[in-house]
Amino acid sequence: MYAQLVKSEGTSREEMSPEEIAFQERIDRNEKIEPKEWMPEGYRKTLIRQIGQHAHSEIVGQLPEGNWITRAPTLERKQILLAKVQDEAGHGLYLYCAAETLGVSRDELLERLHSGDMKYSSIFNYPTLTWADMGAVGWLVDGAAIMNQVPLQRTSYGPYSRAMIRICKEESFHQRQGYAIMMKMANGTPAQKKMAQDALNRLWYPSLMMFGPSDKDSVHSAQSMAWKIKMNTNDELRQKFVDQTVPQAEYLGLTVPDPDLKWNEEKGGYDFTEPDWDEFYQVLKGNGPCNKERLGARVKAWEDGAWYREAMTAHAKKKAARRSAVAAE
Ligand code: 3HC
């Protein structure tokens, strides 16, 4: 177990304080860490970064799908999509609450999102151009999210782990509704099947990018895995996602847009072409197709909601003043 006792890459156990060693031993015993317990500052900061970015992703992730609510092809599809978008808002709220237990306020997290200091998932900087994209988003994007989030149910920080248990239940419904749309489209008219293939072509690589850079370029993986904030490496999860998704594409009669995709008997998984990492880093820098639009929409929503926040705060103050006046009588 002591092999895992690394504070950051290159820091040995000998350099850890007794508190840090005791903390790591709790992690190694799979004990959950709870909000008021002692934790290394790096652990707290890493969690705020990861949970905060995850919360932002849920909230920004409502935008590409919200774009289709008014244009869903049937009333039933509209109701399902509305419910899904509403679920994402709920996921964002559970996660902001989990981050708040680490001593950061929701206002500060949102301020850091709006100023561009904090990230959200790269995937939401791509446009959703046709109704088939709603299918592909559910199937691929929620599918990739689940692949990443199911192991996070066992993450070492109690509030994050409990939030993930609730979130995963809903995400698996989202993935199925996406696949159901893809089935309909892929088995529909030739034009519908073409739309489904086009959605897969455009969203395949952005979905693979959701797992983060390749392990050799991942800055945080080693320490996050030692702390069990992350349970798997980025490449491990990406491989599992490809292995799970390729047969699903075949069942739909669609072609994964990778001519070099090939089953590798020896490793028991597919060999596949890596995403274009230059594109990934450009998207992270704010230069993806929809970065400005997405952030602009969130900032506008925050500014437009100012009057409501003020009214709620004034109302809460008035109620508190009334309560203390009654108590003083
Ligand atoms: N999009 C944006 N930024 C990304 C990214 C992505 N797909 N992948 C990695 N990055 C960023 C990291 O945040 C880090 O930047 P920072 O130091 O400025 O924070 C940098 O790239 C280096 O990557 P690392 O591999 O070192 O980073 P992590 O160890 O944090 O791993 C992660 C990245 C796998 C995404 C990890 O943070 C994680 O598991 N997060 C929790 C899950 C999550 O956030 N999911 C969002 C998906 S969307 C969603 O859930 C909505 C659903 O409804 C579909």
Automatic annotation (TrEMBL):
Family annotation (InterPro entries): Aromatic_CoA_ox/epox, Ferritin-like, Ferritin-like_SF, PaaA, PaaA_PaaC
GO terms (BP aspect): phenylacetate catabolic process
GO cellular-component term (any): cytosol
Pfam families recorded: PaaA_PaaC (PF05138)
Molecular function GO terms recorded: phenylacetyl-CoA 1,2-epoxidase activity
Residue runs in coiled coils: none
Name listed for the protein in its UniProt record: Ring-1,2-phenylacetyl-CoA epoxidase subunit PaaA
Source species of the chain: Paracoccus isoporae
Upper classification of the organism: Bacteria, Pseudomonadati, Pseudomonadota, Alphaproteobacteria, Rhodobacterales
